[in-house]
Design a protein that fits this description.
The structure is a single chain. The chain is α/β, with parallel strands linked by helices. The protein has a single domain, classed as Ribonuclease Z/Hydroxyacylglutathione hydrolase-like (Metallo-beta-lactamase, Chain A), CATH 3.60.15. About 20% of the residues lie in helices and about 30% in strands. It has seven helices and 14 strands. It has a seven-stranded mixed β-sheet with strand order 6-5-4-3-2-1-14. The radius of gyration is 17 Å and the shape is globular.
């Protein structure tokens, strides 16, 4: 099982970092989780988008899905035999996303993307990987994701602290956790690095990956904050990191 970090910035891309996006690969199964601004460009380094088994969009903030637009044109003009690609996303995603496609009809969008609604505690299979979506605390509706095969990769999505995160992260080989904040501003529905560390410790996570750190913050401080709560390996996510989970 392989994880590639395609985009690791919070809210907006920077010179070094695209917005949120992660590729999980096992054999012929390729799952793209989120595709914010810049993710499509990075994806091209690793896999032909026509070979994606499915896309999962955790929530409908533009920094987590906007590159579905350039990917549409790539897929439509390459006319892959694998179309349409299943897109697992919150309910209503198709109609919401269709609004950004000027001059593209619903039927043309449906020829490239087949939207499936995520639900809380929903199980579904993508190729060789068992998936589960679990609702988290964010606006709009957002889902954390568990991907299970021989190993477990879990993803917090964007979220404020809530008990569901323990179920998402439980016994993961790697937990990709947003750590946007370094201070706990109560009105911002995101996690601090300290909270990420607490979740990782209580959920018995083997490796914690901190991502979605606000671009102006020093990642070394976020790592230190998490380390005060969690004594396992802590990875600061950077774009185009390749991590293999094996024995």
């Amino acid at each position: 099982m392989r994880l590639v970090t395609l985009g690791t910035s919070a809210a907006y891309p920077t010179i070094e970092r695209a917005s949120s996006g992660y590729l999980v690969n096992e054999g012929k199964t390729n799952i793209l989780m989120d595709l914010g601004s810049g993710v499509f460009r990075n994806l091209l380094r690793w896999v032909d988008p026509s070979d994606l088994s499915a896309i999962i969009i955790s929530h409908l903030h533009q920094d987590h899905f906007i590159d579905i637009y350039p990917m549409y044109y790539y897929l439509a003009f390459h006319r892959s035999e694998h179309l349409p690609i299943n897109v697992y996303a919150p309910e209503g995603a198709r109609d919401f996303i269709l609004q950004i496609f000027s001059g593209v009809s619903g039927s043309r969008l449906d020829a490239v993307y087949s939207f499936k609604s995520l639900k809380d505690r929903m199980f579904f299979n993508i190729g060789s990987i068992k998936c589960q979506s679990i609702k988290v605390k964010h606006t709009p509706m957002a889902f954390g994701i568990r991907l299970t095969s021989q190993y477990i990769i879990s993803y917090s999505s964007d979220t404020a602290f809530n008990e569901a995160l323990y179920d998402i992260a439980a016994d993961s080989d790697i937990f990709i956790c947003e750590a946007t904040k370094q201070d706990d501003y109560k009105d911002i529905l995101h996690l601090t690095a300290t909270q990420a560390g607490i979740i990782a410790r209580k959920a018995n996570v083997k490796n914690l990956m901190l991502t979605h750190i606000w671009p102006d913050f020093d990642p070394a401080r976020s790592q230190q904050m998490a380390a005060e709560q969690y004594d396992g390996p802590i990875i600061i996510a950077e774009d185009n990191m390749e991590i293999y989970l094996d024995s």
